[in-house]
From TrEMBL:
Signal peptide: 1-42
Record keywords, A-Z: Signal
Keyword field contains Signal: yes
Protein name per its UniProtKB record: DUF6230 family protein
Biological source species: Streptomyces yunnanensis
Source taxon at top rank: Bacteria
InterPro entries in the cross-refs: DUF6230
Keyword Signal part of the UniProt annotation: yes
Length: 204
């Protein structure tokens, strides 16, 4: 029902106009979610001014892709990293910790999950790390492959002509890394615990 001038009466919704605005927004959100699930948006955001620790007792995955990348912070400072794309990650546990300056002193922001609560899982996990320490086993490794042709992890592909590596499977025990960002689709964190404390311990 409409008024003589064609506008919706007070208290009514002009559904055609609403749909014209809402549909593109819904499609955009859907595309964004799909890209995040594929890891395609890794490092597309400004990272914070400091790195953080990532640790796990054991990480296994079907699919690994890696190449050199540069993360940038809000001041456009570059931070060179090894981008590690992990297809379907299973971790026995996970710990992430960062030291954060506050008006009351330096605090430790810490996130832990897994362990006795069960494994941590993530699809298309992407870690932009300065380093990675652990005892590793790669299956079907291809080292020196053109980064623009990587296909082991959907959505994780580097600049054409640059150095890259990938593997069909990966297993790393005693994972320790200093990272600038970590993203993943369908993160499942059993036994999640987040804490902030002045006297807190980091992951390692």
């Amino acid at each position: 029902m409409s008024t003589p001038n064609g506008t919706a009466p007070e208290g009514r919704t002009a559904w055609k106009k609403t749909a014209a605005v809402a549909v593109p927004a819904v499609l955009a959100v859907g595309a964004l979610a799909a890209a995040m699930a594929q890891g395609a948006l890794a490092a597309s955001f400004a990272v914070s001014g400091s790195n953080f620790q990532v640790a796990s007792g054991k990480l296994t995955s079907a699919g690994l892709a890696s190449y050199v990348h540069t993360d940038r912070d809000a001041d456009d400072r570059g931070h060179p990293v090894a981008l590690l794309g992990i297809g379907k990650a299973d971790l026995t546990d996970i710990c992430q910790a960062a030291r954060v300056e506050t008006p009351v002193g330096t605090v430790v922001f810490k996130l832990t999950a897994g362990g006795d609560a069960g494994p941590v899982r993530a699809d298309s996990l992407v870690i932009d790390g300065e380093d990675l320490v652990g005892d590793a086993r790669f299956g079907t490794a291809q080292i020196g492959r053109d980064a623009g042709t990587l296909d082991a992890v959907p959505g994780v592909k580097g600049p054409r002509g640059k150095f890259g590596l990938q593997a069909g499977t990966i297993e790393v025990a005693g994972v320790k890394s200093h990272a600038w960002s970590a993203t993943g689709g369908n993160f499942r964190l059993k036994g999640l615990r987040v804490s902030v404390s002045l006297d807190g311990r980091t992951c390692f």
